[in-house]
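hey m, so remember when u said the tokens were messed up on ur end? i reran from scratch. heres the input so u can diff it against urs
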Amino acid sequence: MPPLADLTELIVFVLLAAGVVVGSLGVVLLPNVVYSAFLLGGVFLSVAGLYLLLNASFIAAAQVLIYVGAVNVLILFAIMLVNKREPMADAPGLGLRRLLSSGVCAGLLWLLLRVAYTTPWATPGPTPLGEDAVVRLGEHFFTDYLLPFELASVLLLMAMIGAIVLARRDVFASDIGTGEAADQGLIEKARSPLLIEKTRP
């Protein structure tokens, strides 16, 4: 019978791993992109919990602040700003694409499992640095990994600008290219304030 601490750690690990797997499947398989975005946030939180189990508290905090608080919120803003209501038409060859993507995912899973079971992992791991870990990470961020760190920030900025451009819709009475009348159902109808409507005889 394992000690209570080890049993609790195993149960928490199983729950977090199940959250990552189920959430990832929901992100890929759900047709509603809003639900997929929220499940992606759950996956990020589960990964942060796994970091906590590894005593990597700074990485867990960075995971929550950057991925949950920035990346996932940016994705939600992009979805809400675009607000695509019309149903998406089925792409040609959708079944073949799903088959190929499933094969790629299965191959990647097999490769990861092979690496996990055949690699001679060094146990126990290196001695924890303690409070010096944050200093060491800061040194690597601003020396060895400065370019990828800055490119990631530029990528997030470009994604936010793209969401704003997609959400900006200028309404015209006629189509610019063809000159035909625009669909009036897409134009927002002006409404008088509710107080005026109530007081009008």
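this time it looks ok to me. The chain is about 70% helix and 0% strand. if urs says something different then somethings off w ur setup not the seq
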